[in-house]
Write a structure and sequence with these properties.
Chain lengths: 484, 459
């Protein structure tokens, strides 16, 4: 029987050989495919395995990872303090995805960024657990909360953006309605998806960051851009240059006319400073007709219109619309028709006027700090463009100061500080309520903060104007930033 | 002095008891380190009970060693340390899976059954001084084996767990009689085939290049096949069915040296499986799952590929080096402490660890087959060969199943899966192999007198 026994022995070895070859195939060749299969919960656990970095701003901890003690499954859970106040910026860290700063700075936060390689290696050798780096934001918590409360209190929808005009640092970015990221960050795919889907289906679009992801008709706040173009076109023009400002401006080639707000009169002719102060539509219509579409378009582009930005949140393009003839142009000049701006873009306009004409690139991340407290990356302010010369910027500043002192924007006045601003009330459709806007910067002589407030149509009554609805919010935000 | 020359001329097999003791200590040490590793991997601390656990396992194995040294001194020195290692790794994995919180996993239980298993091992060695006694019980063994197989079908006694009716409940215990049936039937096959092998081997016609047996000699094959199919149909236990039939065919081949038996066996099995596939959903299901385990439709189906795929995910996530003990996610794999313990082990020990484990299994099997080649009588050869083969075959079926080399059929992984019946049965299996290796390696009788008509032999 020894012959057959030897053959049986070979058969047994063959079976073990087959098992070994197959295990090599499964664990070496197919391993990656199996590891990354979406049904393999392990990749999902890995997201919660290491301590993700903090997100801070102005010395406050906005987001932290809490050790739940659930070893090897959902160990660290994300906790958002004042969730809705910051959610449009910070976003969320959900079981299968991440949004906002949580997404754009993910590699720093989870510790896999190449810049953290050396530290990670050292930690591995000394068998310390992997920890992510912290992200410090430029936001000013006090101003952020004020802006959110002001918007939230009266049930308004809209956005508030505050910038440091000299650097481009985003001091406030609020979008309302907002959401609480905590339910989306629970380590349970089904629960998180339910929370997300509920928000996603909400008609008020709480998941949209209105400051950066949507554009709206800017209304009269755009007159600052029109003024900039008009002043830049001819250096001899100044705030006292007069233009035609009829009660009714016939639009060339049509039977319709351009009127002032509520049919008011600007007295036939107006200086530039008066035209802006009382927000005279026909005066700006006249300027636009005199300059033509291209001039206005170029000026807008210099303020950043038409550019997609990454701050590092994605910012959609603003656009003044196509050249659709002279009638359309007069409406574009007063921020109507196809003229569509993000609230961030309008804050950039105000900031550029305050910063002697220079447009700074907005940014949200102040610095990246390792768990040991070493800064590995610090923001460097970056100039995007020069929108206007310092001379023109100075003239615009005078005009905007006048708006707040004598015109439609008096609600934004601050005690002892000169404020420059411009109101906007944009018609959205015939008969529908208007968008209310306000852009400003302060102190006018040496600005520390530039603000754009946008209140969406219908959310603040049918007769909402920029001066009545938006300017008070800008007032509070500027006050919070300036600490007065 | 002619006397001295004569003694030197007879080659003496080394007992290698010292080497065995060292290897046994080494196996226990590996298991203790693995145990400590689980604690370190999970919470950075050496488990509190490590010393007690290690000393317990060490003491148990030392006792087994003394029994072996006393009652089977010539036994193969490798078998016991190798089995100790596999059993120990299994205990560590079950301990680890219990810590992960998977319901049903109990290291304490398994340790208890391991202890009972070692007691059974010792008892078998002490009681069964000559394994050839089993040859006299051929038909008794056959009857007992069959009865054990049928036992789960008895109303009120049998229990259906996880879709297979292979359990018998006695009091609070559930036992799997199939595991013991496996032993009894191999004993029966060995005894029966030794008696009938000449007939089965010689009678018959030659057709083309295959020697066909006579029709009436097909009887036993058909009966075994019928029993296997019966197990498959009534107990829904594909694994045991395949295990028994495969073992029988292999032993038939070993006994008769006829390839035709293997071919007939394969034909019968394939025919049976195809027919079963047509009739029973669960058989066809298994086959579809085998073809494409990642198919989402099968994944979501009840009784579909969920478990297999979770096991494969574990293998894939373990990769070449594994996550390390205590650092995987065995809880994700259903039944990771029993049928799928190999997947849980693969995740934490990686390809490297599994290759080593398979090597250890292969060594146990080859030591068993070596015993069978060295054995001096046909019954011992066939019994040792059959027991070794059934061990290899069982590892092949279950490991091949969980790694999707072959369709998955539930079986326990010998010495690793949690389950008292399997641990006991397999320790008895090892005791039989040890007993036979002792007989095989024992030096032939030596004459203690120089000459004379009456010779006194000493064993």
């Amino acid at each position: 029987m020894n012959g057959t026994l030897k053959k049986a022995a070979i058969a047994c070895l063959l079976m073990f050989g087959l098992l070994m070859i197959n295990i090599n195939y499964v664990q070496a060749v197919k391993a990656d495919e199996l590891r990354t299969d979406s049904r393999n919960q392990r990749s999902f656990f890995a997201r919660y395995e290491s301590e993700r970095g903090l997100i801070t701003a102005g010395g406050e901890t906005l987001v932290k990872s809490v050790d739940t003690g659930r070893e090897k499954t959902f160990r660290f859970q994300r906790k958002y303090t004042d969730g809705p106040v910051y959610a449009p910026v910070i976003g969320f860290f959900a079981p299968e995805s991440e949004r906002g700063i949580e997404g754009t700075e993910n590699q720093y936060l989870n510790g896999t960024h190449p810049d953290l390689f050396v530290r990670r290696t050292v930690d591995m050798v000394t068998s310390k657990p992997l920890r992510g780096a912290s992200v410090d934001l430029t936001l000013v918590p006090k101003a952020q909360k004020v802006a959110y409360q002001d918007m939230q209190r009266s049930g308004k929808r809209g956005a508030v953006v505050a910038l440091d005009p000299k650097t481009g640092a985003v001091l406030t970015m609020v979008s309302v309605p907002s959401f609480d990221p905590n339910p989306i960050a629970v380590p349970d795919r089904a629960k998180a998806a339910r929370a997300y889907n509920k928000l996603d289906a909400d008609d008020n679009e709480p998941l949209i960051n209105r400051a950066t992801q949507k554009t709206y008709a800017p209304g009269s706040t755009f007159k600052v851009v029109t003024s900039a173009a008009y002043l830049s076109e001819d250096g001899s023009r100044d705030v006292n240059t007069t233009v035609d400002a009829p009660d009714v401006l016939p639009l060339p080639g049509t039977t319709i006319v351009l009127r002032n707000y509520h049919g008011e009169s600007c007295g036939g002719r107006a200086t530039l400073i008066d035209a802006l102060t009382i927000s005279c539509n026909t005066a700006f219509g006249t300027m636009a007709l005199e300059m033509g579409y291209d001039k206005l378009q170029e000026q807008a582009a210099k303020f950043g219109v038409g550019q997609e930005l990454s701050i590092p949140l994605g910012v959609v393009k603003s656009d003044i619309g196509k050249d659709e003839g002279k009638a359309a142009l007069t409406q574009t000049a007063i921020g109507q028709r196809s003229n569509q701006m993000t609230p961030l873009q309008m804050a950039m306009v105000a900031a550029a006027v305050g910063n002697e004409g220079k447009v700074m690139k907005p940014y949200l991340v102040n610095k990246i700090v390792t768990p040991d407290g070493d800064e590995i990356e610090t923001a460097r302010p970056e100039e995007l463009d020069e929108a206007v010369t310092p001379d023109v910027a100075d003239k615009l500043r005078q005009m905007m100061v006048s708006v707040v002192q004598n015109g439609t924007g008096t609600a934004a006045q601050l005690p002892g500080i000169t404020v420059a601003g411009k109101t906007g009330t944009a018609e959205t459709a015939k008969g529908a309520a208007s968008h209310a806007w306000f852009i400003s910067f302060a102190p006018a002589e040496d600005p520390k903060v530039a603000v754009a407030v946008f209140v969406e149509s219908g959310s603040a009554g049918n007769d909402a104007t920029g001066g009545a609805v938006a300017a008070p919010i800008a007032h509070d935000v500027m006050q919070a930033v300036l600490g007065k | 002095m002619s006397n001295a020359v004569d003694v030197a001329a007879v080659p003496m097999t080394a007992k290698r008891r010292g080497a065995q003791l060292v290897m046994l200590a080494f196996a226990v040490a590996i298991v203790m380190v693995a145990y400590a590793n689980v604690g370190l991997g999970i919470n950075g601390q050496v488990p509190a009970g490590m010393l007690a656990y290690g000393l317990g396992l060490g003491g148990l194995m030392l006792a087994a060693y003394f029994v072996l040294a006393r009652f089977a001194p010539w036994a193969d020195p490798l078998i016991l340390p190798l089995v100790t290692l596999v059993n120990g790794i299994g205990l560590v994995m079950i301990y680890r899976i219990e810590l992960s919180g998977q319901p049903g996993a109990s290291a304490g239980n398994q340790l208890f059954w391991t202890a009972v298993g070692v007691v059974m091992f010792s008892a078998t060695l002490i009681v069964l001084r000559d394994h050839r006694a089993l040859q006299r019980m051929t038909y008794t063994a056959g009857f007992v084996g069959l009865a054990l197989l049928i036992l789960p079908l008895v109303p009120f006694l049998g229990r259906e767990i996880n879709g297979a009716r292979i359990w018998v409940g006695i009091g609070g215990f559930s036992i799997q009689p199939g595991e013991f049936a496996k032993l009894a039937l191999v004993v029966f096959f060995a005894g029966y085939l030794v008696a009938k092998r000449d007939v089965l081997a010689l009678a018959g016609r030659r057709l083309l290049f295959i020697d066909l047996p006579r029709a009436r000699d097909l009887g036993p094959v058909l009966i075994t096949w019928g029993v296997s199919v019966g197990v498959l149909v009534f107990e829904k236990d594909l694994g045991t069915s395949l295990l028994l039939f495969g073992a029988f065919i292999a032993m038939l081949y070993i006994a008769t040296q006829r390839t035709s038996w293997v071919l007939i066996g394969i034909l019968l099995f394939v025919g049976g499986a195809l027919a079963a596939g047509q009739v029973f959903d669960h058989v066809q299901n298994r086959f579809q799952v085998f073809l494409d385990p990642s198919d989402p439709a099968l994944y979501d189906k009840i009784g579909g590929s969920f478990q297999l795929l979770q096991g494969l995910f574990a293998f894939g996530s373990g990769g070449i080096l594994g996550t390390g003990l205590g650092q995987g996610h065995p809880r994700e794999i259903p039944l990771s402490f029993s049928d799928f313990i190999f997947a849980a082990t693969g995740e934490e020990l990686g390809l490297t660890g599994l290759m080593a484990l398979l090597m250890v299994y292969a060594l146990i099997v080859e030591r068993g087959l070596r015993t069978s080649i060295a054995a001096r009588d046909p019954f011992s050869k066939l019994l040792a060969g059959g027991l070794s083969f059934i061990l290899a075959w069982q590892v092949f079926i279950i490991v091949g199943g969980v790694t999707n080399l072959i369709p998955l059929t539930g079986l326990v992984t010998p010495f690793m899966s949690q389950g008292g019946s399997a641990v006991l049965a397999n320790w008895i299996l090892i005791a039989l192999l040890v007993r036979m290796s002792d007989a095989a390696r024992r030096p032939p009788p030596q004459a203690i007198q120089d000459e004379g008509l009456t010779q006194v032999f000493q064993r």
